[in-house]
Design a protein that fits this description.
alpha/beta, Rossmann fold, Penicillin-binding protein 1b fold, 6 domains, 7-stranded parallel sheet, 30 helices, disordered C terminus
Amino acid sequence: MLNEITVCGTPEGYDAKIILDELNKKHNSVIHVARDDKRMRAMSDALEFFSPELEVFTFPSWDCLPYDRVSPNLEISSARMAVLSKFAENTDQNFIILTTLNAVLQKVPSKSDVQGYNFKAEVGRNINERQLREFLLRMGFTKSSTVREAGEYAIRGGIIDIFPPGYTNPVRLDLFGATLDGARLFDPETQLTIKKLNEIELAPVSEVVLDEISVKNFRQAYRSQFGASFANDPLYESVSAGRKYQGLEHWLPFFYLELDTFFSYVPSATITMDHRLETDIISRCNLVADQYEARNFANENKPTKDYAYKPVKPSELYLDENDWKTILKNRRSLVFNSLPQALGPNIVDVGGRIGRNFTPERQSDNFNLFSSLADHIKDRLNFGPVLIASYSTGSMERLSGLIEDEGLQKPVTVSDWSGISKHILYLSVWPLDQGFETSDLTVISEQDILGDRLIRRPKKRRPENFLTDTQELSIGGLVVHIDHGVGRYIGLEVLTVGGASHECLLIEYAESSRLYLPVENIDLLTSYGHDEGLLDRLGGAAWQAKKAKLKDRIKDIAEKLIRVAAERSLRSAQILEPVNGIWEAFSARFPYEETDDQLETIRQVIDDLGSGKPMDRLICGDVGFGKTEVAMRAAFVTAMSGLQVALIAPTTLLARQHKRTFEERFRGFPLEVRGLSRFQSVKSNEQTREELSSGLVDIVIGTHAVLANSVNFKNLGLLIIDEEQHFGVRHKERLKQLKSDVHVLTLTATPIPRTLQLSLSGVRDLSIIGTPPVDRLAIRTYVSEFDAIVVREALLREHYRGGQSFFVAPRISDLQEIESFLTDQIPEISFITAHGQMSAPELDGRMNHFYDGKFDVLVATSIVESGLDIPRANTLIVSNADMFGLAQLYQIRGRIGRSKTRAFAFLTTKPRKQLTTEAEKRLKVIASLSTLGAGFTLASQDLDIRGAGNLLGDEQSGQIRDV
């Protein structure tokens, strides 16, 4: 292709600079096609560093497979439509647009179709509320009680909240009769105004718009291609009625007379891409063809009475290899290759090379990492400036201190490329995976120095009180006002007082009395925590009397709690403090960027260890949110102070995983880490016991075997209890008996009600880690009767996207039935079975095979509930889900969704089985907890369902709501 130029010497990061040169020199828009979402984000970060003022648009791909049954995520659909709407309007400006191969190989509605769908409104002008409601419904917006994500809307009287495509925050419209009285951007968490608007413009959320014309087009196309029989066809019935149907976007060609390519929206743009894209195109086209054939094969083998998925032809929705070549033939394109190549007429070398990686030094027991780094920096400063790209301000400051310790001059901190000029050392926040070098520039990434990392984007920190915004209130739910008692939350209303508008929470009390509470006083409310309860009279004396009576009733308990707390405060423990220098080096090894919650929790734990009093702290954080790192920091401080550490895990699998993690992290430090469980040999366990007693072992990690009377410590300083809900009260009391002045750190995602109540009561200190890793997507959870077709499709979807799956059952006796199902129904996939009655060597071998990716599916019992961390595994099938407890289901579901890939959980029950009320409630709760960081919420709901148990006795649950 004459217009294609291969640009060599463009490692990732440096390629962004070449794109900017193309934009500026050619005065032309650029569409960069990345191989996947990760590389698209990396390019976005690099462009932001080199040109922070430049507006960059992102066009993502659907987060579902071709011919899937699920729709793309609302946020992704919204982002796609925002870009299509933007470029459907003719513009003379030049832009950079980032997208992925999967996104551009899929056809989109034409510019003329997208131009016809918009809604504009100006403040002070009349607005037709009925037309607005119809527009939101047709354009794919989802109605919600509160607006949290793009594509959602909520209507409460004269207040309409909308999160439009292309907006970073939702919009609130205030209607006064038929007039748009005001419009403003607001923070969905705090409800506070960010900016007032004079007008708004709404675009569709979905590429499928269900108006009269599109529905007519669909009906005609569907009948033409698949015939006139539509009995038991929910897709055809739903669309014909103008209703959304899950996955209807996969029939996009039927809704329009013609589709177009994304490139038609920016007809003269230069295309840039990675040289490996050509291979990826073939793989993607093969996947589309395979999925299409799988759908047709399933239809041929389906009973005639069942609904058949009728897929559109691949050529109608997707581009193939020839279509791609035709597009490139008529455009200027740059193909990036990080490696050097023989020069030719269409091959240039811009001189970039992949930078040095310090893996050998990092893995060396000599611990010479930072001295090697300093030597390399001194050498490269002879050629030009050296930049260390850090993941965050915190890690940048840590690296600066460590570099200065090696005798180098203090690095200069810069915010972007414009601040770099002299032959000196610079530091900047730029989440670059791998550094690069040119003849006059050296960029070293934090990952080059410290190993694989995953940045977590900044997240706004919320106030410490539990009830902080209206999202935590459900309309019709019961709330408690500190002065007026139990009322029912009706919703938000705007009151005009003295010519000024005020947003108020409307609370209804007995005898239809109403209280309007300004939103800024929301801290006066708490959630009642139960669906049923008698409303108090507004202004009556009953609430105050009830509070006084409650004080009397809990007086005895309070005295006991005070006595427990007093005894604890009188005990003393050795003061433990981090050792400067070596503490920073250990912290710098953490392969993630700490979140605000994590940093605060680490600070609290370090303060506890240095207080001279025994620590007793509960850390509640969702799966994968970084609790183990807090434990490792505490263990490091304790062990480096000469005391021993014991980490107790409920299962051998979890203990083994912790042992591996600790051994890797503590390598190079003078500390001995050992395991104590049935995965270790009898001889090894005996040696560990002896060396614990003599003090040769610094850190021991094991199961309840650590609690045996035969285990004695020479100088135990810290007990770490992981997944505490699996231990009984007496197990925990045995832990504390090991030494009266021991520090205790408890980790959990879903604390048992008794533990949560003790923490909320102040008897135990509580830390909550509620911030998820960056780009972690909430798990999509489906609860239904077991459907062989749905399960087959889910497992195949994971298989085709290169992932792994869990198939979990409550009993060992259920596993054989699952094995038969997989063998008969899905011969394309491989599976392996694991359960707790297997011998340790056999179980260990099977788990290692699954870890290594040798099998697609792990068939198991609840043994997988704790300890498995496999980012590739992102589909979960649970058989007989009603037989699991709420916390169990939550922990099992936590085995998936531990990466940036969308995860799917299918909780199934036996067909036509009558569920108990409790089981039905559990399944409803787990399905509703779809947001990240919901573990604390789950524990709170469990506290409501089961009660707190006996705070001072052995019972861990039991209704005590009346107290």
